[in-house]
């Protein structure tokens, strides 16, 4: 594991602690709001064993309404990872997405946590993704292992793309046939100061993006590793369905679009959508009647249709 130097860690820890303090109440308010309007209360907390003795990875398992009282055949599952900048503890911020997917497709959704920097830099989050996939693969009585998908938002979208490429064939008979990546970063090797879009909308400041990268991958030489930056993964390693959903106002949109374009091979289904008039993270705590709300509904619709088609639901 690439560790931080003492003074580098101290500096990053102080900055990140301030970031976390400033966003804590807003994050909780967003989760509570989305839980209140969600049609699906059928979720339970799962403790996933990790490779470290005595440590577990927390995850919320979402089930279709009524399925807990009326057991049916094992179901396909979509594994989701939340956004975080690789520093924020944002588990449950995707409750609206997870609820809609399971309600409207009948599939299970496993919304999984992962460790953050600077306390645990790479490969901490990567190992937690790996351990989550291993646990799913060990549960054939609960999950249809031939119908497994991965999804994620922002840093979680990065991890989903990594799961769908570098880790996709590691846990046979688990078969990842689908990835939905929403405004992910795909290339951490590029200087954030050079990342721009024609119509930025409340863009992540380059200095903040640089801090996120330093917290997660202090060793710059590792940032071209496909386990860090999925832009460097072998295109042939990605699954049959790839949905890349980016935002017009997001500085990370061009690299997501570029990766999606690279994956078009005439065999794989690639959905490459750039949502207009929205920023990075637009879907969290969106207000009814706003463009963010309308585009969040569109995001959910596209994701539901993609899951249904990939899983033959």
Q: Summed up, what is this model?
A:
This protein has 7 helices and 8 strands, in the order H-E-E-E-H-E-H-E-H-E-H-E-H-E-H. With 313 residues, it is α/β, with parallel strands linked by helices.
Description:
It is a single chain. An 8-stranded mixed sheet has the order 1-2-4-3-5-6-7-8, with helices on both faces. It has 313 residues and is of the alpha/beta class. The chain has 7 helices and 8 strands; from the N terminus they run H-E-E-E-H-E-H-E-H-E-H-E-H-E-H. It has one domain: Alpha/Beta hydrolase fold, catalytic domain (Rossmann fold). The chain starts with 5 loop residues before the first helix and ends with a helix. It is globular.
Strand order of the largest sheet: 1-2-4-3-5-6-7-8
Q: How many helix segments?
A: 7
What is the total number of structural domains?
Answer: 1
Rg to the nearest angstrom? 18 Å
Low-confidence stretches: none
Which structural category do the helix and sheet elements fall into? alpha/beta
CATH topology: Rossmann fold
Beta-strand fraction estimate: 15-25%
Tell me, rounded to a whole number, the average pLDDT.
94
Q: Note the run of SSEs as H and E.
A: HEEEHEHEHEHEHEH
Q: Give the % helix.
A: 25-40%
Shape type: globular
Number of strands: 8
- How would a crystallographer describe the biggest sheet? 8 strands, mixed
CATH class: Alpha Beta
CATH superfamily: Alpha/Beta hydrolase fold, catalytic domain
């Amino acid at each position: 594991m690439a560790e931080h130097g003492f003074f580098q860690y101290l500096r990053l820890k102080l900055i990140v602690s301030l970031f976390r303090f400033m966003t804590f109440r807003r994050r909780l308010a967003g989760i509570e709001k989305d839980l209140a309007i969600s049609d699906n209360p059928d979720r339970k907390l799962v403790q996933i064993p990790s490779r470290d003795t005595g440590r577990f990875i927390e995850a919320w398992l979402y089930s279709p309404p009524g399925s807990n009282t009326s057991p049916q055949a094992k179901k396909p599952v979509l594994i989701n990872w939340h956004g975080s900048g690789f520093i924020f503890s944002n588990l449950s911020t995707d409750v609206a997405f997870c609820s809609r997917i399971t309600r409207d497709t009948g599939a299970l959704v496993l919304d999984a946590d992962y460790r953050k920097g600077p306390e645990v830099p790479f490969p901490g989050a990567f190992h937690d993704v790996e351990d989550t996939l291993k646990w799913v693969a060990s549960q054939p009585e609960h999950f249809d292992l031939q119908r497994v998908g991965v999804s994620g938002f922002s840093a979680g979208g990065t991890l989903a793309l990594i799961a769908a490429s570098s880790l996709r064939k590691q846990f046979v008979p688990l078969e990842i046939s689908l990835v939905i990546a929403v405004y992910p970063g795909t290339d951490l090797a590029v200087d954030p100061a050079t990342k721009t879009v024609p119509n930025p909308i409340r863009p992540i400041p380059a200095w903040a993006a640089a801090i996120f990268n330093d917290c997660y991958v202090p060793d710059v030489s590792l940032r071209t590793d496909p386990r860090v930056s999925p832009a460097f993964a072998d295109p042939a390693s990605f699954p049959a369905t790839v949905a890349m959903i980016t935002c017009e106002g997001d500085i990370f949109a061009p690299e997501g679009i570029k990766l999606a374009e690279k994956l078009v091979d005439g065999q794989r289904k690639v959905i490459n959508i750039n949502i207009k008039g929205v920023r990075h993270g637009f879907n969290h705590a969106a207000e009814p009647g706003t463009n963010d709300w309308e585009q969040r509904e569109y995001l959910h619709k596209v994701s539901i249709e993609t899951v249904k088609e990939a899983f033959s639901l």
